[in-house]
Each structure stands twice: as structure tokens, then as C-alpha cells.
Specification:
Number of helices: 7
Order of helices and strands: HHHHHHH
Strand content: under 5%
Largest sheet: none
Distance between the termini: 40 Å
Number of strands: 0
Structural class: mainly alpha
Radius of gyration: 19 Å
Length: about 140
């Protein structure tokens, strides 16, 4: 038993490995849920809407965003939801057929879209606030 414990002390795992692994599992799970709920076509529309919402937040005057440290995140999320709700009427996007590797495309697209949204939200939050939710290592991965 002591050899087993000595093995784990020699590989120098970080103290917050449980939190980082939990975040990874939550991220992958959230990505899969988004993929199966929205589907690949809607995920691509959400990806486009993410860029549009990011551009809108970038041009908002700083005086409006100075009211709260959460103002940028709130405006971004509201714009993303609003654009995703009306995007069928806004854009006429058509994506070709699914093909035989539909599920791999769905999984990859959902992971990329979820990662981008989480990264943008974490970059808009003040670092002190974001580090209250995740570790420094995980913050370095996303923000």
C-alpha cells in the first residue's frame, strides 16, 4: 500500500486536480447536451451568433459597461440568446447534407461552440470573480 501512495507523491499531481477534472467532465457533458438538444445546424448558427454578439459587445461604449463587472457578460448572453432566437428570420443559412459521419461532426462542433462561449464569458469576467469559480489552471485553459 505504501508503494501505491509513494507513486502518487512522485508524479506531482496538482492539488486542484479534482476541480480541473470536474470542470473537464462538466464541459464535455455540457457540450454533448448542447449538441443533442440543438443539433449541428443550430450549433453552427449559434457559432455565427457568438461572433456577432462579441462584435456588438466590443462596440458598446465603456460608460454603459462600467455599471457592473457582470455587464459585459450579461449583455453578451442576452445578445446571444436574442440572436439565436431570431436567426432563422435574420440569416438564410443552408448547410449541405449530413453525410455518414454526422455524429462526429456534431460532437466536434458542440465542443468547439461550448468552448468558445465559455472562453468568451470567462474573458469578460474580472479575473478575481472568475477565479472564485474555477482554478488558475483551468482559467489559463479557457481565458
Amino acid at each position: 500500500m505504501s508503494q501505491f501512495l509513494n507513486f502518487f507523491t512522485t508524479i506531482h499531481l496538482p492539488k486542484n486536480i479534482a476541480g480541473d477534472m470536474s470542470l473537464l467532465l462538466l464541459f464535455v457533458g455540457m457540450s454533448l447536451v448542447f449538441g443533442f438538444v440543438f443539433g449541428r445546424w443550430k450549433l453552427i448558427n449559434i457559432l455565427i451568433n457568438t461572433y456577432i454578439a462579441l462584435a456588438f459587445v466590443g462596440i458598446i461604449p465603456a460608460g454603459i459597461l462600467a455599471t457592473s463587472p457582470y455587464a459585459k457578460v450579461g449583455i453578451f448572453v442576452i445578445l446571444l440568446i436574442l440572436l439565436s432566437a431570431i436567426d432563422k428570420r435574420l440569416f438564410d443559412l443552408h448547410i449541405s447534407n449530413a453525410g455518414t459521419d454526422f455524429f462526429w461532426r456534431l460532437i466536434v462542433t458542440s465542443i468547439l461552440v461550448t468552448g468558445m462561449i465559455v472562453s468568451i464569458i470567462l474573458s469578460f469576467l474580472p479575473q478575481k470573480v472568475a477565479l472564485g469559480y474555477i482554478s488558475v489552471t483551468a482559467f489559463g485553459y479557457f481565458a
